[in-house]
Amino acid sequence: xxxxxxxxxxxxxxxxxxxxKLLKKxxxxxxxxxxxxxxxxxxxxxxxxxxMMQQELSRISNVSESINQDGITLNETKGQxxxxxxxxxxxxxxxxxxxxxxKEDEIIFWASVVFFYIAVLYVLWTRIRIPFLLW
Length: 135
Description:
Order of helices and strands: HH
Mean pLDDT: 83
Radius of gyration: 44 Å
Number of helices: 2
């Protein structure tokens, strides 16, 4: 970035210097040799200005193409994200159903464990008549 900024400043400075040279015309009439020299300098300056403008137009064209390509990429990405939105919602619903089913299974498991121990204690009490149960 610093290199392009420095080049831009140098171009602006040289453009400013050339502009000042062109604007500093002497009020007195000049001989034909000096007039021809000034005409050559003006022509040279105009050619440099034309070249600089072509370079800037080329740069702007490249930037415009990059912006258009980035816009296309962003639109494609947006479309992909929108497509995933429905999948994410359905996955969230499925996850909530799985969590609910997990809690239900846990309740059934612990109820089964309690029922098993109650059944074991009932069998022990009816068959062995363990005295510590006091029934």
